Every structure is written in C-alpha cells, then in structure tokens.
Sequence to fold (243 residues):
Amino acid sequence: MSLRRLAFSTLCLAGWASAALAQPAPGPEPGRISVIGQATIETPPDFAAVQIGVTSKAATAAAALADNSAAVARTIALAKTMGVEPRDVATSAVSLHQAFRSVRTPSGVEQQPDGYQAQNVVTVRLADMGRLGQFMQQAVEGGANRIDSVSFGLREPGKAEREAAVAATRDALARARAVAEAAGVTLGPVERITTPPRAERPGHPPYPVMRMATAESQAKAVPLEAGTLAVSAEVEVVWALRQ
Fold:
C-alpha cells in the first residue's frame, strides 16, 4: 500500500471515531408505574330461574309419557298465568326409558323390568321474584315432583360491569397516586389500560326479596331469598413518571 493511501485510510478511521464519540450517550429510559385497580358492585337480581320437572312411571312407555306430558303442561300453563313470557320458559331435559326393580331370587339379586319412566324438566325465569316461592309450591301441587335448581341473575349485566370497571379504574388511580407519593415521584400520562375478564361471585350479606300477596299464598309458598349479585372488575393501568 502506498504512503498516500495509508494516510487517507488513517484519516477516515479517525474521522469515524470522532463522529462516534461526538454522538450523545442515550439517557435513562423514563420510569413507569403499573397498578391494578379492583372493585365490586353489588346489585339486586332482576330475575329468578328455577329448573322444575316431572318424573312419571307407568306400565307402558306411552302411558308414562302421556302422564308426564300432562303434568309438565300444567306447570307451563301455571307459569303463563303468572305473567311469564313464552321466551322465559324452555325445556331443559326430556328422557324416556325402561325401569327396573331389584328382585331377590335363590341365585341372588336380579334386575327385572318394571314399566317405564319418563322425565321432563323445564327452566322458568320469573321477573316477579316475589312469586317464585308461590310458583314452586303450586307447580308441585299440579304434579311437578322435581326441583333441580334455583338461581338469580341480571337480564342486562352490562350496566353493572361498566360500573365495576369505572370503580376499578378509580381505584387504580388512587393506588398509583399513593405509591407515587410514597416514592417521591410524579405521575405522568397514562400509557396503557388493560381490562381483564370480569369475575362474578355471590354477594353478601343476602337480603330477602320475597313479597307474598296474601296470607294464604304466604303459607303455601316456598321461602326463598335472592340476596345480591356481585360483579367484580380489575383494571391494569400503566403510567409514565415525569422526569
């Protein structure tokens, strides 16, 4: 390599080194604070749902199904007389099968045919929860002999969910301010807000909502309490910290 070319290369390397040294060093990244806010909104339910059904037994399949259907029809008719809309009455389960009974014989216990058994379960939703106990009692008097479950809910849970999310966001802000004050820093702008899925759990303490129309109906009604429904929300909020 000639002396001229070597000198030129040396100057170029020196220039690149000077340019690299002249660039300012990156400063520290801005601090952040991440806080999870939590809130629970308790609200009374606006409907009650009961799974009520009939189990019938007869010598023939046709007879078992006919008896069962008649009793279920009376339950559905009762729901309509109490103002339950057709959309709030739905069949939950239907079955028909041969029944058996255990018979002791010289060789042991055997299962022998014993007619047929039919089952039909319907789910009824009542907006007038004060008549739920009355409905259950009268349904049993009309031939129903199964009550599988009773539950309470909200037809439009979105309002309670939004209220819980707003309260959780306010809780996150209060927590962040407290932590920032303790650390001697100042909150900057919000960088990210994340809302995980909500969670529901039974409220406490429950309160009675049964309101019977007459003393006679109160005496025949099944005692029930709706309590409250609790809708919980969590919100994660990330703030930048001011320098």
